[in-house]
Fold these 2 entries.
Entry 1:
Amino acid sequence: MTLSMQGLAKSFKQGDTQLKILEDLELNLQDGEIVAVIGESGSGKSTLLSLLAGFETPDKGSMSWNGDVTREWDEKRWSEFRKRSLGFVFQNYHLIPYLTAVENVGLPLRLTGVAGEEANAAGEKLLRQLGLAQRADHLPNQMSGGESQRVAIARALVHKPSLVLADEPTGSLDARTGQTVLDLLFTLLTELKQTALIVTHSAEVAARCHRVLTLRQGKLWPS
Ligand SMILES: Nc1ncnc2c1ncn2[C@@H]1O[C@H](COP(=O)(O)OP(=O)(O)OP(=O)(O)O)[C@@H](O)[C@H]1O
Ligand SMILES: [Mg+2]
């Protein structure tokens, strides 16, 4: 899947002032490209991912997925896009609190009509690959931060989306677990020729990506 952003701007209103976060931002991703986004805390990385997923609306500029201009999308088109084509790893995981790990992971499949048993089997397989076979029946509040993060990664990959947006996917993992997770993540991304934008503070994650962009002063800069 290709992605293009042109002249993109986003600001937030804070009392009487407008906080300009993104300004005249440009981004072009080729099909199958895996790109890292780095930048200081508060520079707008999560905001950028929110715009790409349609959770936030840009103030200005245009954005297109596979040449399809998203300004013309209604909420129904956006949710179809998220359901079929998008895997999103939230910075704070956003697991559904009343679903077990395996149910959380299987959810994207259930949403596209896959039967429970098949969704659970796919979920269990990914959880096993991420070292969480013993946690499949745990609820989110019965898991550590790093375990929750791996569940969130599995949920973003289970339906083999053509696009993966990941916000600090290894931020809560120790070095060894991080390695295992990165190996699987990059193997899957490459095998499935998925396009991916990965926000990270880790030099190791960035080094594995095809390109690294830095978000600074509202724009993306090559590094
Ligand atoms: N809904 C909102 N309302 C007001 N301000 C917001 C909102 N969302 C984000 N911001 C502000 O926008 C700026 C960018 O936030 P964002 O979460 O995108 O940063 P980030 O680069 O992801 O930072 P971090 O590395 O800490 O996760 C921050 O200063 C934040 O306070
Ligand atoms: Mg963030």
Entry 2:
Amino acid sequence: MPITIRPTRVPDISALQAIEAAGEARFRAIGMFADRGGPLPVETQDDHRRAIAGGLSFCADAEGQIVGFITGRMQADEAYLEQVDVLESHGRRGIGAALVGHFGDAARSLGARGVVLSTFRDVAWNGPFYARLGFEEIARADLTPWMLEIEAGQRPFLDVSRRCFMRRALP
Ligand SMILES: CC(C)(COP(=O)(O)OP(=O)(O)OC[C@H]1O[C@@H](n2cnc3c(N)ncnc32)[C@H](O)[C@@H]1OP(=O)(O)O)[C@@H](O)C(=O)NCCC(=O)NCCS
């Protein structure tokens, strides 16, 4: 089935939220979040609207069915990749890599020098997935105040000791 990567539109937001919520099951399947009763919070409608307005929200559209998305925002002269999710039924076909590539192109055209993200270091479809796409871990001592602020916001929900920030320069 042909996949088109296109800018997200406001009416798409609830589909994106459902895809993000479904992605959590993968982490639970490998024993993560077992100590959490309820589901993790997903990006809010306002988060999505901001990403759309900022030109950093794209979805993978399979003839009308949204099967993946990527969102982010500019942070000074870097683009922060907030979220990328692909339905497991459509996984491992290069859609995630294509979304990350598309995001990088858009970020470059907005003036970003690099793409930064925060992820689980040792989960196969997190740190190693991004490393294959050219991202490198940022040393703890090099984390900027805005990155530390993001980490502080994650601490109530995620085991940040298992996470790292990664960056890929945009040539
Ligand atoms: C990360 C994610 C977006 C990748 O999407 P995708 O369309 O499957 O990505 P691609 O097909 O481009 O690349 C998949 C690669 O990820 C890794 N990967 C994905 N799923 C995996 C799994 N179940 N086990 C091991 N490696 C896996 C592999 O390196 C794989 O490459 P391969 O198929 O050649 O072995 C998708 O796995 C996802 O939505 N995960 C849940 C949400 C998430 O963790 N998002 C990132 C938050 S930082």
